[in-house]
Amino acid sequence: MKIFGGHGYVGTVSTANVTGINQWSLDYTVDPLETTDFSASGVATYITGVSRWSGTFSGYKDGTPIALTGTTVSLVLAESSVTNWTGLAFITGIHPANTFDGLVSYSYDFQGTNSLTTATA
To answer: What is the pTM of this model?
Structure first.
């Protein structure tokens, strides 16, 4: 399923029907592992350690939201029609909100559970 926003979309492959998404953000980091030894002459040295990724997506309630934290989804986070990030993640937080005029929005936090890939078509 593709959920279009202003510049990109969040696509999920799961039993949940999530629509109305209009924003996403992604944090992709790697742990630096210090390898400084006596020969480093006082300058710290590092190698690449474990990578991890997490983020959020949000939008207006349009259909049935993902109901529970811990739900696993396959995400496609698109920057444009040709570039996207994909991976398996689970929902770690759900934040519903309501305004005075009855406009309901949902925000979701997710944590990647496997490798994150990027592709340019």
So the answer is: 0.77
Residue ranges of E strands in 46-82:
46-60, 72-78
Shortest CA distance to 76 belongs to which of 116, 107, 17, 108? 116
What is the total count of domains within the chain? 1
- Which residue segment(s) compose the domain that 106 sits in? 2-120
Do 118 and 85 touch, CB atoms closer than 8 A? Answer: yes
pLDDT digit string (tens) for 52-107?
A: 999 998 888 876 666 667 778 888 887 777 778 888 898 899 999 999 998 899 89
CATH of the domain at 86: 2.40.30
Q: Contact at 8 Å (CB) between 65 and 19? A: no
